[in-house]
Design brief:
Blueprint: E1 2-13, E2 16-28, E3 33-37, H1 44-51, E4 59-64, E5 67-68, H2 74-84, E6 85-88, H3 100-109, H4 115-128, H5 144-156, E7 162-166, H6 174-189, E8 193-197, H7 201-204, E9 209-214, E10 217-221
Helix pairs in contact: 3-4, 3-5, 5-6
The structure holds adenosine-5'-diphosphate (ADP) (2 copies).
């Protein structure tokens, strides 16, 4: 589903520049549940932001479903992201002045979808995530775990092939974290390819592959024990 070839990312720092991703080569197959681990500041979020097409200041090749993202302009990348990718954040990133229902409807508002189809999809999603009773509440009226449930509902309502999550349980108690991970596992079993960043070995255990990033280099891949460490 994804091929990254020699992905590099740097930031300007004072006089020079700091490299945060170094020659990342990574293939992700459809149906995988991949975990990115590594120390703080290693480049994990930077890598996820490249995959999410939130960042467009990188070098190298990124193929998504055989489409050359690296050759696309900003508008084309936004289209590809909208069609294929859902994103979940550590701090949920819900809009505080919208209700649960309005928050999960948001990705559909960018699509040209007939009103009744859109309402049906929202109703189905509320039902599927068992948040029908919360639909008219605002994020501040929910627990962290419930907010993340809404964040995931919003991320998958447009049925993305790829679900990306940056420390999705980082602000949650372990019981809530387990529920969120079980939900990820269920989505993965239903065919969604998942990439998560986490510090948690427990969370990693829900996936089927782990890579490690250190100082911007990919230093370990459980699917490729022979990976040479260039760092
Ligand atoms: P991780 O997710 O592994 O903690 P990040 O990808 O967030 O690491 O960050 C990698 C490095 O890049 C860090 O040193 C971080 O401070 C730096 N960095 C990330 N984003 C920016 C930015 N927008 N401007 C400058 N430096 C950044
Ligand atoms: P969340 O908790 O929702 O995942 P964060 O609070 O970690 O989000 O914020 C991450 C954002 O901050 C990213 O867009 C990342 O690129 C940016 N960032 C991380 N480190 C730095 C840095 N050193 N300088 C500037 N921006 C940074």
């Amino acid at each position: 589903m994804i091929q990254l070839r020699n992905i590099e990312r740097s930031y300007k720092t004072g006089a020079g520049q700091t490299w945060v991703l170094r020659r990342i080569n990574l293939d992700i197959r459809e149906g995988e549940f991949l975990t990115i681990m590594g120390p703080s500041g290693a480049g994990k979020s930077s890598l996820l932001n490249v995959l999410a097409l939130l960042d467009d200041q990188w070098l190298g090749e990124y193929w998504l479903k055989d489409e050359p993202v690296h050759a696309m302009n900003r508008k084309q990348r936004a289209e590809v992201a909208k069609r294929n990718i859902g994103m979940v954040f550590q701090s949920y990133h819900l809009l505080d002045d919208l209700t649960v229902q309005e928050n999960i409807d948001l990705p559909l508002s960018y699509k040209n979808m007939p009103r009744n189809e859109r309402q049906g999809l929202v109703a189905d999603t509320l039902d599927r995530f068992q948040i029908v009773g919360k639909k008219d509440l605002y994020p501040s009226q929910l627990s962290g775990g419930q907010q993340q449930l809404v964040g995931i509902a919003r991320a998958v309502i447009h049925k993305p092939v790829l679900l990306l999550a940056d420390e999705p349980t980082g602000n949650l108690h372990s019981s809530q974290a387990k529920e969120i991970m079980e939900l990820f596992k269920q989505l993965n079993d239903q065919g969604t390819t998942i990439v998560q960043v986490t510090h948690s070995e427990v969370n990693a255990g829900f996936g089927n592959r782990v890579i490690e990033v250190r100082d911007g280099w990919m230093t370990m891949d459980s699917a490729n024990p022979d990976l040479a460490n260039p760092g």
